[in-house]
Design a protein that fits this description.
With about 200 residues, this protein is of the alpha/beta class. The chain is about 30% helix and about 25% strand. It contains 5 helices and 7 strands. Strands 2-1-3-4-5-6-7 form a 7-stranded mixed β-sheet. Helix 1 packs across helix 4, helix 1 crosses helix 5 and helix 4 packs across helix 5. It starts with 5 loop residues before the first strand and ends with a helix. The chain binds 2'-deoxyinosine 5'-triphosphate (Y43) and magnesium ion (MG). The site of magnesium ion has 2 residues, from loops. Keywords: Hydrolase, Magnesium, Metal-binding, Nucleotide metabolism, Nucleotide-binding. Homodimer. Pfam families: Ham1p_like. It catalyses: XTP + H2O = XMP + diphosphate + H(+); dITP + H2O = dIMP + diphosphate + H(+); ITP + H2O = IMP + diphosphate + H(+).
Length: about 200
């Protein structure tokens, strides 16, 4: 399909880089877009797909390499799917701890049975900046939102995300376990199939 020994990852999130590189294995080396630019594109899309494509095109344009982007977030049932594509900006760009505090506050009076949520991940791969046929792969991970943070692993909302199949939070999971179960793992399994790596 294309020479995929090197891909630039269109992300400034070190947690994503670590997880995606572990899932991809040694056949494909992910290089961070941070090697080429510190400027983050504005995520102006109205969907995970649009933002993933926008980030991938931007990284391919800057690096001259094929680019992979991950647009992901947490969709909380009680909040009508919010923060969704705005997950990283939920607390106005103040970071993960502020995002988590805001989510706990928003759900403080919501009972267990109404705390369902899913993590969403869309991966977009473009061969070049103007690629007319990006590869798109989606993964979902169903769980619920805890009443208090738990766990030290992972990043983002992991300490608040209860994983029913393991009876612990996503941040309690060892990285190898999260990388088997997560929204990102599911999207990457599909991408590996599409690339003939599976
Ligand atoms: O496995 C995950 N475990 C915990 N939290 C997660 C996960 N996956 C996404 N998330 C959260 C983090 C951030 O609040 C938002 C992603 O936002 P998103 O714009 O896709 O990523 P980002 O701004 O951190 O990095 P970048 O855009 O440079 O790839 O969802
Ligand atoms: Mg972002």
């Amino acid at each position: 399909m294309m020479n995929l020994t090197q891909l630039v990852l269109a992300s400034h999130n070190a947690g994503k880089l670590k997880e995606l590189q572990a899932m991809l294995g040694e056949a494909v080396q992910l290089r961070s877009i941070g090697e080429f630019s510190q400027v983050e594109p504005e995520e102006t899309g109205l969907s995970f797909v649009e933002n993933a494509i926008l980030k991938a095109r931007n990284a391919a344009r800057i690096s001259g390499l094929p680019a992979l982007a991950d647009d992901s977030g947490l969709a909380v049932d009680y909040l009508g799917g919010a923060p969704g594509i705005y997950s990283a900006r939920y607390a106005d760009g103040k970071g993960d701890a502020a995002n988590n505090a805001k989510l706990l506050e928003a759900l403080k009076d919501v009972p267990q049975e109404q705390r369902g949520a899913q993590f969403v991940c869309v991966l977009a791969l473009v061969r070049h900046a103007d690629d007319p046929l990006p590869i798109l792969c989606e993964g979902l991970w169903h769980g619920s939102i805890l009443f208090a943070a738990s766990g030290e692993h992972g990043f983002g909302y992991d300490p608040l995300f209860w994983v029913p199949e393991r009876n612990c939070s996503s941040a309690d999971l060892a990285p190898v376990d999260k990388n088997q179960l997560s929204h990102r793992a599911r999207a990457m399994a599909l991408l590996r199939q599409r690339l003939g790596l599976a």
